[in-house]
Amino acid sequence: MKVRRPAVAGSFYPADPQALATAVDRYLASGRDRLTDPGPPPHALVAPHAGYVYSGPIAGTAYAAVGPRAARIERVVLLGPAHRTYVEGLAASSADAFATPLGEVAVDRSALECVLRRPQVAILDAAHAAEHSLEVQLPFLQRALGRFSLIPLAVGAATHAAVAEVLDDVWGGDETLVVISSDLSHYYDYDTARRLDAETAHAIEALLPAALGPDSACGRIPVGGLLLAAQRRGLRARLLDLRNSGDTAGSRDEVVGYGAFAFSS
């Protein structure tokens, strides 16, 4: 069996299994406390992907929103931007499982074969080897859901429509959760970042992919694809949490923005 091994354990998040589980559970508990009105269980989420000390609290809010639906989720469609390798379209993996210090998550190969029929999707293991945007979501999913299978896709040079087509292929029902991994603005001062991120949050809640620009989010392409898919299904996007590294664990001179969003009917 071919396993994609963790690349950022010990840097983005703890490499020790117990320390990792404790940290994630703490972020999830904090997220539940923050959700005074959890709202309807989401079919899709947007969650950030920085080092946990920076974005963990906001990711915790995103995954806390899954709540009672967690027991019904059997499969996660996980898309994030490719930071390390140029990708034309969307990159799938040939791995049979993705590993974290908490264990292995099986890849849904049959579903992946379905999306590989799309011309914009191809296997490119190099895009996954050192990529953090997908990996950092997995411990949250493991603690929030327990057992599930995975459809991991790294998104590169693609259109919102191309991403939406792939999401349509694997959207599923109550058994499927779609997760888009994305941070928001990068390296602006605190006040500028808050303004830009508020504009991005408005665009996401209004389901307006065309309003997402290069400064909005590193994952603006997969986020935009989700917005198109949500439009088609009559879903509503709801902002759960909006903070930045200046609020969590960094200086306010240059910050990175983080948002948690839930999509439900």
Structure, explained:
It contains ten helices and twelve strands. The chain has one domain: Protocatechuate 4,5-dioxygenase, Chain B. Strands 2, 3, 4, 7, 8, 9, 10, 11 and 12 form a nine-stranded mixed β-sheet that branches. A three-stranded mixed β-sheet has the order 1-5-6. The chain has 265 residues and is α/β, with parallel strands linked by helices. α2 runs parallel beside α6. The protein is 38% helix and 23% strand.
Q: How large a portion of the residues is in β-strands, by DSSP E?
A: 15-25%
C-alpha Rg (nearest Å): 17 Å
Oligomer: single chain
End-to-end distance: 38 Å
Per CATH, the class reads Alpha Beta
Shape: globular
Structural class: alpha/beta
CATH superfamily: LigB-like
Poorly predicted runs of 5 or more residues: none
Number of helices: 10
Q: Into how many domains do the coordinates divide?
A: 1
**H/E series, N to C?**
EHEHEEEEHEHHHEHEEHHEHE
Number of strands: 12
Please outline the major beta sheet: 9 strands, mixed
**Overall mean confidence score, pLDDT:** 97
Give the CATH topology.
Protocatechuate 4,5-dioxygenase, Chain B
Overall CATH architecture: 3-Layer(aba) Sandwich
Helix share, percent = 25-40%
